[in-house]
Amino acid sequence: MMQNQDGKRRVSRRNQPPQAEPARLQIRRDSASFSDSENLFGMRKAKRNSMNAVNAVNARLVSGILSLLLAVAASAFTFLPGFRVQAPVVSGSTRMSVEEITYYTGLRNLPIYQVDPELIRSTLLKRYPEIRDIAVTVAFPSEVNILIQQRKALVEWDFGGSKFWIDQDGRVMNENLAEGDKIYVLGDSFPGAKNRSDRKVPSKFSSKVVRSILNFGGVLPEGKTLFYTYENGFGWDTDAGYRLWLGSNDNALDEKLAMAESLKKYFIEEEIEPDMVSLEYTHAPYYRFSQ
What we know:
The structure is a single chain. By secondary structure, the protein is α/β, with parallel strands linked by helices. The protein folds into 2 domains: 82-150, membrane protein fhac (Ubiquitin-like (UB roll)), CATH 3.10.20.310; 153-288, Rossmann fold. It is built from 5 helices and 16 strands. The protein has helices at residues 31-79, 98-105, 117-127, 207-219, 253-269; strands at residues 2-3, 9-10, 84-85, 89-91, 110-111, 131-139, 143-150, 153-159, 162-167, 172-173, 183-187, 226-229, 233-237, 243-247, 276-278, 286-288. Strand 15 and strand 16 form a beta hairpin. The radius of gyration is 50 Å and the shape is elongated. The model is unreliable at 1-5 (pLDDT under 50).
């Protein structure tokens, strides 16, 4: 022990016994416990692998069974006569035979699952322009129903010796496709012609043209013929002896008919015998005498 100048004693470390270092935390690996954990983990992993293998086998087994069932069903639909269409059931038309429709649609001995209703519909509409619409339905095990909506000709147009027919949609047909009464028109032209010599009849007339023809036919006097010319439109011969022209459409038809009755009385009162009266334009009616 020594004494400082300030009188304090200083302890010499040289003579002190060494101090013990703090005990370090000793981690002892328990080899036996660690080995047990590894074995347990391995067993669990092996079990999972085994279960996955079993699940994979089960999935393949189920898939194989389903594939086999589908193959059996496809074979049944393909080869068994009970699942093959022998001929369609056709209704709505007497003009086309079942044999003819069967030929064009390929429905003879066809497996039911190969029937395409939309393809059948489009094929028949292209093949038969007289068909307005078609509904095709399929019923298991082997039935195909085809319902045909036939076009109905409402107008017979006599065009300089040749004829064409117009249906309710304005479609032009070269064949009379319906029985019963029709509006007969004798014309040297047709609505919408470019000029007097135009002979190219359109494949379809507008709904306005069809409406006009039907309306003129509805007011045509009994026993009279409905005429059509390029210059004057629609008209007919009156009982008074002159031809009455009302224009190429049915605009203001009621007003024109009223004017026609007034002129008829006027001609009788004035003892006028015209050859032709035109009311195509209600604001400028005119008549002329025979030459």
